[in-house]
Amino acid sequence: MLPFLREHWGNPSSAHDRGRRARAAIDDARDRLAAVLGCAPRELTFTSGGTEADNLAVRGALQRWGGERGRHVVVSAVEHEAVLGTAAALAARGEAEVTVVGCDAAGRVDPERVAAAVRDDTTLVSMMLANNEVGAVQDVADAARLVRLANPRTLVHTDAVQALGRLAVDPRALGVDLLSLSAHKCYGPKGCGVLYARWGTHLTAQMDGGGQERERRSGTENVAAIAGFAVAAELVEGEREDEATRLGALRDCLEAAVLERAAHVRVAARAAQRLPNMSALLVDDASAEALVAALDGAGVEVSGGSACASGAARPSHVLAAMGEDPGRTALLRLSMGRGTLATDVDDAIDHLVEAIDTATASAGKPPKRRALTAAGG
Ligand SMILES: Cc1ncc(COP(=O)(O)O)c(C=O)c1O
Asked: How confident is the model at residue 327 (pLDDT cuts 50, 70, 90)?
């Protein structure tokens, strides 16, 4: 990224040499990202992040096709707010009619239920590839196939923001028309994302102006971030299989130890296929905010539910959809990555057990009786 912040900081729309170098950097990044995703470079539109990519997919599809094909949208109940909130905002303005398809207790959305919700006037179905709060992976390929059978004109979007570097992300194999990604979920810079739109999928641009990104997203491109995103995606894809094995083993070890040593704790979405790098722990009658603060004090950085702008934990709509009581049950989201070592996990286990025991003891629940040996430590 540094050359595009220091020497080659020209505007990619400028015709002079510095501008052309910046343009070449974007072209190169688009080619590299397309190679990672197995798509054509012209199918990628750079955005300011996953939120904007989701907005462009949902609003862009509805505004372009709503009048012709219908205003009905199908979303799953476990979508990120960038999809759910956008659909709700369109519905509030009378621009969409939204059907929300629920999930089972493990956070899985049934592709058959998604397809059954599709009508003649359904313009868009949006179903995420992997959930950001509990890590449940959805069978998007099957849903896309069934949706096409139900209505061949319906566009299928998937928010794959959590999946890059953890699962194979191949829009053609998934059979989707639209797919959103965010750079900062794969060690790239914040404030950069991309929307894949299958060639021939027309959308209404959400930003008017200079007509950059093939008229799809006006505004001078964030050249350094785009260059960084492409390299980050290549690197994370290159190490994906090894890292999935390594982190999956650490995740299993963490969950086994916490379940053995702490009482009143469960693992969310355990019966589902899950992201290998993430564990979501459910603690009944405890406050996620208090647990997050206690763990932070011990140097263990975890999240309660999804991170929102205020930093405060909101009752999780994902837990509610799974049939939990988000007002009563705390969700602790533990994510691991490239820098996570086995010793970090051992350390986290000790602090987690202590924090969970303290939180549940204050609710009048006894901790688990522990053996005097360090077994399981
Ligand atoms: C599943 C999912 N979608 C969308 C987003 C939003 O992406 P961004 O932060 O790049 O706007 C996130 C971010 O956490 C996410 O987890």
From this structure: confident
Please state which CATH class domain 2-238 belongs to: alpha beta
How far is Cα 178 from Cα 155, in angstroms, rounded to an integer?
8
Query: What's at 267, amino acid-wise?
Result: V
Would you say 135 and 126 are in contact if contact means Cβ atoms under 8 Å apart?
A: no
How many other β-carbons are positioned within 10 Å of the β-carbon of residue 372? 5
Question: Is residue 159 lining ligand 1, measured as CB closer than 6 Å?
Answer: yes
Alpha carbon distance 166, 146 (integer Å):
25
- Would you state the structure tokens that stand for residue 256, as one six-digit string? 């086994």
Q: Which atom of ligand 1 is nearest to the CA of 190?
A: 10
CA of 321 to the centre of ligand 1 (A): 19
The catalytic position among 103, 186, 253, 308 is: 308
Whole-structure pTM value: 0.95
| pLDDT tens, position by position, 248-303 | 999 999 999 999 999 899 999 999 999 999 999 999 999 899 999 999 999 999 99
Tell me the domain boundaries of the chain. Answer: 2-238, 240-361
CATH code of 240-361, in short, is 3.90.1150.10
Over residues 18-45, mean pLDDT: 97
- Helix axis angle for 288-297 and 342-361, nearest 10°, is 130
Sign of CA dihedral 294, 335, 346, 235: negative
Residue 308 known to be catalytic: yes
Regarding the beta carbon of 82 and ligand 1, being less than 6 Å apart is answered yes
